[in-house]
Amino acid sequence: MLFELLKKRRSIRKFQEKPVETEKLETILKAGLISPSGKNKRPWEFVVVDDSAKLDKLSKAKPAGGQLVKDAPVAIVVLGREEKSDTWLEDCSIALTFMQLEAEEKGLKSCWVQIDKRPSEDGRGADVIAREILGIEEDIKVLAILAMGYPEQERPAYTEEDMDFSKVHYNSYGTSYTSK
Ligand SMILES: Cc1cc2nc3c(=O)[nH]c(=O)nc-3n(C[C@H](O)[C@H](O)[C@H](O)COP(=O)(O)O)c2cc1C
């Protein structure tokens, strides 16, 4: 069952105007809140954004690859508290992924929009702009935005051809798994 969901999960960048039901959104957030983390530090915080003016501004925080945010009915901005854990990046990435998969399970589609380490138009950094828009303190990392909604676009599910076993080694690096 999970593998079927994983195959059909694709990044979707066009959404219907239809809002995401509160119950679904809350289950998605819960999926993030219970995801695994190094030493169980849970260094994440999430900002739910459904204010269309703010979504529009966020989409401009990162001109390359961020535009889709403005057409999403809702987005979850994933923040990390670096001082809480040296694995904040891994932990927050997993939390975002758990939420993405739960969204998929709820019949929604989504896209990860990277903010951390990405430039803004004025060169200050997409994270700096996102902090300004959402009133986030300077010491909190802004990892990414998970934009989601009901899809206005279809993309094909992954097939066996996409599963590249040349990347899988067997017992020693360089020994093909498929020749075992
Ligand atoms: C760390 C990370 C950052 C990403 N950043 C963006 C982004 O800023 N904008 C965007 O449109 N897609 C972004 N994506 C989505 C990828 O482009 C997408 O996952 C990839 O092309 C594979 O397509 P799929 O998700 O449909 O399998 C990001 C994905 C990851 C994992």
UniProtKB/TrEMBL annotation:
<dbReference type="InterPro" id="IPR050627">
    <property type="entry name" value="Nitroreductase/BluB"/>
</dbReference>
<feature type="domain" description="Nitroreductase">
    <location>
        <begin position="6"/>
        <end position="61"/>
    </location>
</feature>
<dbReference type="GO" id="GO:0016491">
    <property type="term" value="F:oxidoreductase activity"/>
</dbReference>
<dbReference type="InterPro" id="IPR029479">
    <property type="entry name" value="Nitroreductase"/>
</dbReference>
<feature type="domain" description="Nitroreductase">
    <location>
        <begin position="66"/>
        <end position="150"/>
    </location>
</feature>
<dbReference type="InterPro" id="IPR000415">
    <property type="entry name" value="Nitroreductase-like"/>
</dbReference>
<dbReference type="Pfam" id="PF00881">
    <property type="entry name" value="Nitroreductase"/>
</dbReference>
<protein>
    <submittedName>
        <fullName>Nitroreductase</fullName>
    </submittedName>
</protein>
